[in-house]
Amino acid sequence: MASEFTFPSLDWLQAVREVFNTTDMYRGAGSGRCDCVVGLKIEGAVFIVEFEGFGCTGVRQANEAELENVDFYLDMPYELWKSMLENISANNHAIGEFTLNTLDLGMEQGIAHSKHEDQYRQDLFVRYNQTMQFFFDASHRISTTFEEIVAS
Amino acid sequence: MADSQTGTKSAGDSRPMDIPEPKFNWMNQSRQWGTRVTPDKKGLTLDKTNVGIYGEVPQRWGDQGRNPRGAIPVKGALPIGYSVTQKTELWADCAAELYEEAIQRRWAPATDVPWSSIQPLPNDVEVAICQVCTEILQYANIDIEVLTNWQHRMSYGYHEVKQFLATASLDAARRYEAFRKRALINGGGLGLEPTGQANRFLLESRGGWTETVAGLALIRTLFVATVCEYLYKHSYNDAERVVYSFVIQDLARLLTYGVEHLKFSLAHDDERRGSVITMIAIGLGMFARDLRDPVLREALAIVFGGGISGARNEGMSIYYDLIEDFRERHLAMRRWLDLPADAATMPRAFRPRDQN
User: Do A46 and A67 meet the contact criterion of CB atoms below 8 Å apart?
Assistant: First the structure.
């Protein structure tokens, strides 16, 4: 963990992507082929993460309007993103209330949303849930610092 | 020496055997020779083989034999009697993709679940978990039977669907295995067999595969997936978390097939709409009767509440949250399918708590 990466940032996502794509266990049981385009909405910032085949093929910064085109996007308060990543860092993977599945259940409207009202695309969050979890679990291998964001 | 009576040949005998001259006249018979399918970064997936005539999926498959799509059929073969022969009766565009996904996202309960993470639990919690496992593995048994009971009635022209449903059967078998192992690993055992009105409803559904899918996907599969999500949130060890999270993904594929098939069928066959609505209403009624039996409700409440004392208030409250989540997801799918989606028309067991 030579470098520190600030969350949220494109550099941070690229570092996570690198770990995810080069760690065999993230392609093991329960994971595998995954084809979807995922948005991340973190306070004012929007990122797009693309998965194709067995890897994450790209991450990029985007704007709110581009969330129209993703299969689904994850949106939760910044403090929850931070707590989830701290939990992952402390345990090498998310446990307890900080798994994506449990976070989704814990919020009134869930954490996975879409703007297209296409049930098939929205359901990809459930079909590929373990892959999404592995992607964020990969962040335990990088040193994360958190941008101080005051919740709006 | 050759045995003149049997035609066999001994070692060292150089005389030619009395075998028919090969004609090779079966060669050069193909409906489309020269086909070259190409793999891409996902590998050579099933949908990539749908090129030329091999990708022609007919609206009706009239061949009553086992002829693989694209092959030259046997002449004079006796009809087998497939009853699901129309594309509208089983098709979903995503079937090939779901088949590949099921193969590639496979897992093995024997080795991929950290069973050693399970530690002794309070007796009431262990009893409750074992009862929940008993119910879910019984559901899995029914799923296998329902799926396989229909598979052999489906024409070979729609191999994508038949192959996907084969993986769905395996998923159900794995679900049975995983929950049975969880029930038997920690000093407990299997509990009571569930009452099973909904099981009979699914098993005895003979009207059509589409109607059966409405009950199997929108009711049974969605309910078990919702239960597994709540169990995941209230799991007691890593082994349970792995089982529940992997099962949720498996069930999501069957749910996706179900919803996409219903979408396709309803869009192409106006006659289906009424029977699908009726099937859902009957299915929910049967399922509501099952839920009147307190066993699953109380067992889940104990698991969610951390024991009998926690089950009375917190655990039972979480159980009703689960039922409300199931209802909302069920209604969302009906809206997506452009089917009536009024919670007030659902059986009392699924209505909002303040309307009961």
Answer: yes
Q: What sign for the dihedral angle of Cα B186, B190, B196, B202? A: positive
A-B Cβ pairs (cutoff 8 Å, strict): 80
Token digits of residue B52 = 């030329």
A39, part of any domain = yes
CB B160 within 8 A of CB B96: yes
Task: Give tens-digit pLDDT for A69-79.
Answer: 999 999 999 99
Residue with tokens 């990466």: A5
> Using the beta-carbon criterion (under 8 Å), do B256 and A123 form an inter-chain contact?
yes
Mutation site, B41, B233, B264, B336, interface A, largest A CB count within 10 A: B233
Residues of the domain holding B127: 87-355
In terms of Cα–Cα distance, which of B151, B177, B174 is closest to B164? B151
- Give domain status of residue A120, yes or no: yes
Say if A133 falls within a structural domain: yes
Residue B186 has pLDDT above 90, yes or no: yes
B264 falls within a domain: yes
- CATH number of the domain enclosing B262: 1.10.620.20
Nearest to B105 among A33, A53, A95 (CB): A33
DSSP secondary structure, A87-121, as one string: HHHHHSS--GGGSHHHHHHHSTT-SEE-SS--HHH
Parallel/antiparallel/unpaired status of strands A112-113 and A72-75: antiparallel
Output the domain CATH number for residue A19.
Answer: 3.30.1050.10
Amino acid sitting at position A111: I
Q: How many domains does chain B have?
A: 1
Q: Which residue of A has its CA nearest to B104?
A: A32
Q: What is the ipTM of this complex?
A: 0.84
Give the tens place of pLDDT for each residue, A106-149: 888 889 999 988 888 988 999 999 999 999 999 999 999 997 76
Residue B1 in any domain: the answer is no
pTM of the shown model? 0.90
CB contact under 8 A, A33 and B256: no
Contact criterion met (CB below 8 Å) for B147 and B220: no
A152 within some domain: no
Check pLDDT > 60 for residue B133.
Answer: yes
Q: What pLDDT, in 10s, does the model give residues B235-292?
A: 999 999 999 999 999 999 999 999 999 999 999 998 899 999 999 999 999 999 999 9
Does B107 reside within a domain?
Answer: yes
Task: Return d(Cα B297, Cα B292) in angstroms, integer.
Answer: 9
Determine, yes or no, domain membership for B287: yes
Both tokens of B352, joined, read 């909002």
Going by DSSP bridges, is the β-strand pair A45-52/A36-42 parallel, antiparallel, or unpaired? Answer: antiparallel
Chain A interface, mutation test: which of B112, B113, B245, B326, most A Cβ atoms within 10 Å?
A: B245
| Side-chain-side CA neighbours of residue A78 (13 Å) | 14
Residues of the domain holding A94: 4-144
